[in-house]
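Help wanted!
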Amino acid sequence: MIYLDYSATTPVSYEVLDTISKVTKEFVGNANSIHALGQKSAKLLESATKQIADIFGVNASEIIYTSGATEANNMAIIGVAMAHHRKGKHIIVSKLEHPSVYAICDYLKSIGFSIDYVNNDSEGLIDFEDLKSKVREDTILVSICAVNSETGVRQPLKMIRQIIKKENIATIFHSDMTQAIGKVSVNFRDVDLASMSGHKIFGPKGIGFLYKSSMVKITPLIYGSGKSNELKPGTPPLPLIAALSKAVRLACADLEKRERFVSLLNEKIVSSLEKYPNIKINKTKYSIPHILNFSVMNVMPETLIHALDKYEIYVSTNTACASGEASLSVMAIYNDAKRSKHTIRVSLSHVTTTEEVNKFLNVFKEEYEKLSTVR
Amino acid sequence: MEKLIIIKYGELSTKKDNINFFLKTLKQNISNSLSDIKNDITYDFGRMFVLVEESDLENTVDRLKNVFGIWQIIVGYKDTNLDIDAIKENILDLVKNKEFKTFKVVTKRSDKNYPIKSMDVSRIVGSYILKNISDVRVDVHNPEFLVEIEIRKGEVLYYFNGEAGLGGYPVGTLGKGLLMLSGGIDSPVAGYLAIKRGVKIEAIYFESPPHTSEAAKDKVIKLARVLVKYNTTVKLHVINFTHIQETILRNIPYEYLITIMRRMMYRISAIIAHNNKCNILINGESIGQVASQTLTSMRVINEVVKMPVIRPVACFDKLEIIDLAKRIGTYEISTLPYEDCCTIFVPDHPVINPSSIKASEYEELIPYKELIREAIKGHEVIYVGIDEDKEYEDIL
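Answered by r_m:
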């Protein structure tokens, strides 16, 4: 099997798997219980959270566990909307967000919030002037992802924050960092809220977190009991949390070295696909090397994906959460409808090998050339 | 040019004969806080110089911000080329990317053999900056940016605006004190303030299992660990108070419960302090905050010990204490929801003007001297260091 869809999800690493099984077996107490068994769990919960907080240079109380990035995005965006609607009902998002962000915005629109979409330039970078002009006195939230899931375009969050705060100091800045964490370095202090998901960094599915600066107030979406966190009440899923903490630690080590390696793989693929006149590489100078998007203009991408399936080679059309639809991000950057309907996304990781990439390129060449002659 | 960290002393400059002791202690404290960083520390009566690898510079400055006895931390540059042209070029190079509107150049010559007078060096360098950087002017009274040049034997130092250090005296220069650490908001702040004045602290904590939990003790260890940042290590004495507390509860009128309990704690603390060469007791009492902290209560409680009791936050408002607790990082720990032995049994109407005669009479109802001896005999000592519990390292 050649797996080249790491941005959709990753396999759980063996080390993380060990943690899940060990914690499941040995930490049976509820971390909310006051007896010694419960306290043993509470201590592990605390150490796990502190490890994550230390890695990102924030306080442990600023980490709120969720089931993943979609829940974290909901918690952040709806949470801000509910807590601050008296100050304003205006929210700004980019045109490069994950589908879950748009779904949340559609809901908020239906209950009276107004959503503005900030433009980006032809390199995928947020248009600073446009952002500046759109931030108003009643803008309560701006949400811009750190790395776009389809094209890998990375946004300069620090600069964006400065622009937002200069226009309106009270506007809260959220960033979906799911595709950035574990791939490139991030700084939580650039934002007020950040979402992430464990299964993108070789952790288990069903766990992620929201970073919420202690200076920001949001309204809880879920109500219940348990002292671990007022935003996410209930019994903390300790095996998943400990596993997430370990996955974060492993993912954030050696970032630069790994990024350089992935860059080499990326360049190898680009240089061999560039040769085809009907393949357009959807990559700008701001794309991170882990995500490589291209449009196969003369073949339907689904057909190609099924053709690769036979060889157990797995790539995707666009983000897994919007499969089958045109890529909004490619549309936003290139403004070309056909190009955005014909996208294929190859996503790499530091565990991808050169052999895998070579094999993929060979098979791709064969199948693509065969399919090209069909019509 | 070589980068180095220059440390300016705070109140130390008022010390005379014993200044060497203060400086030696400061050097030792700095060296302790940089134990895992390769460093070289030298000093004279005016300042201390810390040399580290360039990659450790930022981390070193952060560590120094937690060391008492430092007034200013400045990252400076050292060069051996004393030629005036080299000096002005070097300085221009260093300042041209900084943002400022007004500046001033100050020169000191500890090497009086240097041919150009200090004032002249300042003038030459100042006019060179004026000529080469647009839109800046000299303001000798209130400059936004200060360029300092120090000409020493065979070397010259350049430095600019520094960062504020914590002030205070080097920890340990004033001897030891015993901090009564409860787990609340006030006592860690009191400990911090005592450390600031150069007092090396040990801590004492009273637990009352099963009325108080293991989690409450963990919380106190965590608080001690925050203080370790400033104090190198904290020797924590844990006293099992259960027997004393239950005996008081069974035998003494309820409204005097807190008064007598506090008197017992004071007596035990004084003995522990004496045995560990601590000269004073330190606690987080604040005038009027609770019934045991009225002036009458303080007098009646205090009279059972002879050593001085220092109450650094006695005259602080609660909000001022909270602010400081947040700043030093103890607030979040202190507000964790665990009972300590002062809060588990609280009478509805504790006496706010206790009488010392009554207190003594009530104490005669219990064999308190024996109880105290028993509590001290079995007491636990924990050395709290900076390192966290690595218990779950294999899992995480």
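OP: Thanks! One thing I noticed: The interface with chain A takes residues 213-215, 218, 332, 337, 388-389, 391-392, 395-396 of chain B (CB under 8 Å).
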